[in-house]
Amino acid sequence: MSNILKTIDLADGRAVLFDAAIDDYRAQNLTCFAPDGTVRWQASLPANTGPDSFVDIAIDEDAIRAITWSGWSIWFNPVTGTENKSRFVK
Question: Hey, where are the domains in the chain?
Fold first, then answer.
């Protein structure tokens, strides 16, 4: 995972969606960085979804909404990375 697909500037950092490698079974490819470049948090994929990765991110009200390849929308707190809610949308 080295190619960047999308970034979101936050008040105190940046969320980065990395491209998942084709051979990654489960790619934890959404990371939030502090302004100094250190990792603040890394988003967790839903459990028991088999092969999966994050495919898109957006700001949705006060959260980062991430879409997974398996069809889930997950809203993360942009400061802590805590999952606020999730919904199957596929």
Answer: 4-88
Spatial contact of 43 and 65, defined as CB atoms under 8 Å apart: no
Question: Looking at domain 4-88, does it have CATH number 2.40.10.480?
Answer: yes
CA distance 14 to 75: 16
Please answer whether residues 74 and 46 qualify as being in contact, where contact means their C-beta atoms are separated by less than 8 angstroms.
yes
What value, to the nearest 5°, has the Cα angle with vertex 40 and ends 36 and 41?
Answer: 150
Whole-angstrom distance, CA of residue 81 vs CA of residue 10 = 13
pLDDT tens-digit readout, 20-42: 887 889 999 999 999 999 999 99
The full length of the chain comes to 90
Tell me the pLDDT tens digit for each residue of 48-65.
Answer: 999 999 999 999 999 999
